[in-house]
Design goal:
The structure is a single chain. The protein has 234 residues and is of the alpha+beta class. The chain has 2 domains: 176 residues, DNA ligase/mRNA capping enzyme (D-amino Acid Aminotransferase, Chain A, domain 1, 2-Layer Sandwich), CATH 3.30.470; 49 residues, no CATH class. The protein contains 4 helices and 14 strands. The two termini are 34 Å apart.
Length: 234
Amino acid sequence: MLATLTDSPFDDPNWVFEDKFDGFRMVAEIRGGRVSLYSRNGKIISHSYVEVAKALEGVKADAVIDGELVAIGKDGVSHFQLLQNALRHEAKLLYCVFDLMFVDGEDLRALPLIERKKRLKAILPRHKLIAFSSHRKGKGTKFFAEAELRHLEGIMAKRADSPYASGRRTADWLKVKTAQRQEVVIAGFTAPRRTRPFFGALVLAVREDDAWRYIGHVGTGFSHQALEGFTANS
């Protein structure tokens, strides 16, 4: 289940609000005490996060859990770049869990979000690598202001009675960012012009459903060293 980006926070008694983490989505499947970790696209990543998988062996039921793997820096805030292998030693890993799709063979996806979260909290072990994503009901505007003061990436707004829509982007879950940012992919580069060495501009694209969409070029702000380094590694 994926969230839709929206422009501004709001207040609504039928919605709950959670922290938005700067990490990556990870689904955990616990079966008979054995744990498998999956990325958002279904790739098995258990071998990369053995310590998190070990912590989840303490879950008190067979379950499929949704959450976000984050790395907490010295400032107490999650930073995506700290998840890179070279920086793991500088940060504390934390699996922030926020939804429960299955428990002991029972499909919970049609239940209201609030009920799923209640049942999730009940089966979680106490462990320093696992955190339950708590929420606040109704007061999204104030919650967003607090997120800005804490230098968080943003907040999540979720309809309290929403079912879990596997694999779909939905308006029942919204994300509100404290700073507007777009993740893009470098799809290629253009030839250099005039006296500029190495390359002209980077060609950028974003993923939309099953296709890539071109969004523009960027060619300024690169030092000679950066231009040379990019070309050498491309």
